[in-house]
Amino acid sequence: MSELTGRIHSLESFGAVDGPGIRYVVFFQGCPLRCLFCHNPDSWDFQGGTEMGVEELVAKIVAFRPFYRDGGVTLSGGEPLAQPEFAAALLERLKEEGLHTAVDTAGSVPLARCRRAVELADLLLLDIKALDPALCRTVTGADGSGALALLDWCQQHGKPVWLRHVLVPGYSLERERLEALARYLRPFTCIQTVELLPFHQMGAYKWQELGIPYVLAEVKAPGPEQVALAREIFQREGLSVR
Asked: CB 3.0 to 4.6 Å from 150: which of 12, 107, 181, 184, for a disulfide?
């Protein structure tokens, strides 16, 4: 297992928004989704990034242990579960090092392919792009059923989840859609918190550099009142909101 290699987009040694505490974040290269609001479209190509071995990567991670000793390591992307064997091998080694691990995923990889990596992770940061399949196809190119199936599995097996949802005006940031999602999530005791992530334009320049049409170029970031309304909707259903 330790001789496996994977494609890595980038590394961040001091992540503050990728799970509990300060995190070392490993961004995997490659993603099957094409989210309209993606701020890392340069991570889509499975042939991009840098090839790295498990032990090489673990050595880099543990060198920064003093910075994240009260946090841990997060596998992000791209889609880390799209490299399931490599992700599992890395998580296994990090567990041997006594490090808390999280996997940031959109559930776009069938669980049958990535179950071992999911089982090894201490926490899943699960991104539900949209509850409605038609809207999800519009914003990601897929219907989102994989994310819901993964959430069901987490509920059945007691896997802790931080649920993430991006608030995009004109798409996901609509009262009825938010209320439907909040009602859907209410019974899931595996969800420790819901992170409502306001859409932003910080990655727009990457789309231009890659020559990819950016549909959301004219969409503005939601204002404080819109974000507050979304938070209230989820809190009304008894969900913890970050």
From this structure: 107
| Residues 63-74: tens digit of each pLDDT | 999 989 889 999
Structural domain range at position 26 = 5-236
Does residue 64 sit within a domain?
yes
Amino acid letter at 240?
Answer: S
Task: Read off the CATH number of the domain in which 181 is found.
Answer: 3.20.20.70
The answer to whether residue 103 scores a pLDDT higher than 70 is yes
Whole-number pLDDT of residue 1: 44
pLDDT digits (tens, 9 = 90+) for 204-221: 999 999 999 999 999 999
Spatial CB neighbours of 231, under 8 Å, sequence gap ≥ 6: 196, 241
CB 102 within 8 A of CB 125: yes
Query: What is the chain's Cα-based Rg?
Result: 17
User: In terms of Cα–Cα distance, which of 111, 198, 197 is closest to 151?
Assistant: 111
Residue 201 exposed, middle or buried by CB count within 10 Å (0-12, 13-18, 19+): middle
112 in any annotated domain: yes
Q: Using CA atoms, how far apart are residues 238 and 98, in angstroms rounded to an integer?
A: 33
- Summarised one tens digit per residue, pLDDT across range 23-79 is 999 999 999 999 999 999 999 999 999 999 999 999 999 999 998 988 999 999 999
Cis peptide before 78 (omega within 30 of 0): yes
Q: With beta carbons less than 8 A apart as the criterion, state whether 132 and 53 touch.
A: no
The residues near 103 (Cβ < 8 Å, ≥ 6 apart) are 74, 75, 80, 81, 87, 91, 117, 118, 121, 123, 124, 125
Chain position carrying tokens 């992770």:
121
Query: What gap in Å lies between CA 223 and CA 22, rounded to an integer?
Result: 27
Give the number of domains in the chain. 1
